[in-house]
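Predict both folds.
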Amino acid sequence: MLEVLKAEPDVEQQYCHTHGGILRSTHWLIYSSDKNQIAESTDWNEYDWFSEPEFLAFHAREWWQREV
């Protein structure tokens, strides 16, 4: 997922985050080439910013699927 975000920097991408079973949530992610950080939102309005190591520490081993 991070490779895809970095390949399309500064473009908001929509992902489905699977929490197990049928429980899912939608997240909007942006890789900022200026900040070299990843922005994550679940409500379109407010983003939380993470460095790549922070994002991986928080979301490692989780299931994500890009939505078109």
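Second protein follows, with its predicted structure tokens after the sequence.
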Amino acid sequence: MLPKVEDLSCACVDVKPTSVDWSEGHGERWTFLECSHCDKCGAIVDSTMGEEKHCQIDLKSTCDGYVSPGEGPMMNYFYSVDGYAADAEDAAKLVDLPVCIVTDPDGSDGLAFTGGGMDLSWEICEAYMILGYLPPVHFADLPAYSSKKLDERAKWVIAGCMRSCEIAARWATDRAKTLRALRASMAAKSAKRSA
């Protein structure tokens, strides 16, 4: 069941991608969590270890089906998830998206794409929302793909993006109000000094 839009955290509304070179430092500077489906039973299994039998990864399982290896991050961007702690259960929730959970050198957790080639704004917004966050406004300009259907999930992602935009607009309005008050206060102090 998808979380309600009104229950999602606004902690990531201002997040923007950070450029990262994933070709260096895996295991030393960064790690990732990713899951895949077992080719025999369909179970969602941690695929971070590479191609293995299901029963070799999950010792409680007797299934001898194979789990495709996790690709890890491919596109050179890191998408921070403020206040989030990496969790294998959350990696499992993202199994059908081209996204993995990454822990960077300073211990911060976030998301990275495991594939690319087109605008993946829908997918990154959905990933944030699945993890309990409103999507970053940076990705709210969702592409209009002719093959994209307006199903319940698409409506949910659009609603999340709209909510992020509303919150960002309110924050901008509040900041402008604070700046106007600051300007008025500074002008009054300046006038007192001149008098």
